[in-house]
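Need a sequence for this fold. Nothing fancy.
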């Protein structure tokens, strides 16, 4: 082989330049003489090229969403519920948790992952500013974690959850019965075409359901429609940041968002500010408030990966789900990064339905 810049395989299995000079090169070959033959082998170079192409193919595969929204939300949640993996790791609450400043400073992994979700419900209830209520609607209830938790806190209130997933209804009803919570009930219903009469509920609760709604305006309007005058609407939702001429969303960011839309059956996201504008545009909302809960919810993403890494057996015994779970792990990390850099924000929005205008006396 010629002197100078030579490529050989090192003991670590990577390609790197050999040291210049015959003595140094011969010393390398004395340590691993088989490397000289391997480095000169067309098979070795073909293997390296194959590995590179495989890596590019895998990256391309994981850069495109696999569950694009096409009215498939109910079917996707039927599958997630039947598989049991989501409930095993996330518990009864399939939404993010909260970590206060002290918990974040101490290290989020010291907090119980599932307890963080119960804390979220308590904090969201406080944010709603609801007083006493007798009837609550949980829009996009999952298998009813929030509904059952609130039903236990308010045993004299009726808590009703709606979802597009029949499997979630069955599991939520089963868990309510197991825990002897008779004031929580669940049914399949489209949040964009609810069959409830106007002014039916004192509190309308929507925790991480707006992401899946193909018509955000109709989503807000329907929830306000079924709310009683003086009642509270509270929404928790993954939001993309507000786009302005001064702070446009770049082409690269749009690609990131498209993956987040297409992997978990999201038609699109809107900003916190847009949710507030939709409330205002209804003409029936007052005392509109919002907040960005990204700091206290951000740890949930990577915490969820850690709970899976620390207890992998439920995944190991279901090899048919390995690819899907790998995609979910990649998506969770991409979500973390999008929220961490401000492309995404965790929005909390609330309003009160205005009292009905008095009827003019003739």
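Here you go.
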């Amino acid at each position: 082989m010629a002197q100078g810049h030579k490529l050989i395989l090192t003991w670590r299995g990577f390609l790197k330049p050999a040291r210049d000079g015959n003595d140094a090169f011969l010393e390398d070959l004395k340590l691993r003489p088989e490397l000289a033959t391997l480095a000169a082998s067309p098979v070795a170079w073909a293997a390296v090229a194959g590995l590179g192409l495989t890596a590019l193919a895998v990256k391309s595969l994981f850069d495109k969403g696999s569950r694009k929204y096409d009215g498939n939300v109910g079917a996707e949640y039927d599958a997630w519920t039947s598989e049991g993996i989501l409930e095993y790791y996330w518990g009864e609450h399939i939404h993010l948790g909260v970590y206060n400043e002290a918990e974040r400073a101490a290290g989020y992994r010291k907090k119980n992952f599932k307890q963080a979700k119960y804390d979220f419900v308590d904090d969201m209830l406080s944010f709603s500013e609801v007083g006493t209520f007798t009837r609550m609607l949980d829009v996009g209830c999952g298998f009813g974690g929030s509904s059952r938790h609130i039903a236990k806190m308010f045993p004299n209130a009726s808590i009703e959850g709606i979802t597009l997933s029949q499997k979630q209804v069955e599991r939520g009803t089963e868990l309510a019965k197991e825990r002897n919570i008779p004031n929580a009930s669940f049914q399949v219903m489209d949040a964009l075409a609810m069959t409830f009469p106007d002014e039916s509920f004192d509190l309308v609760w929507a925790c991480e359901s707006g992401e899946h709604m193909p018509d955000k305006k109709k989503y807000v309007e329907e929830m306000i429609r079924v709310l009683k005058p003086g009642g509270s609407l509270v929404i928790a939702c993954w939001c993309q940041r507000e786009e302005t001429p001064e702070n446009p969303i770049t082409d690269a960011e749009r690609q990131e968002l498209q993956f987040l839309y297409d992997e978990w059956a999201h038609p699109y996201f809107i900003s916190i500010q847009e949710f507030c504008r939709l409330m205002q545009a209804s003409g029936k909302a007052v005392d509109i408030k919002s907040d960005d809960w990204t700091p206290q919810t951000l740890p949930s993403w990577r915490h969820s990966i850690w709970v899976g890494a620390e207890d992998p057996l439920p995944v190991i015994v279901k090899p048919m789900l390995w690819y899907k779970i790998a995609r979910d792990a990649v998506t969770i990390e991409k979500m973390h990064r999008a929220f961490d850099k401000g492309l995404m924000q965790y929005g909390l929005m609330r309003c009160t339905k205005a009292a009905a205008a008095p009827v003019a006396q003739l």
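For context: The two ends are 107 Å apart (CA to CA).
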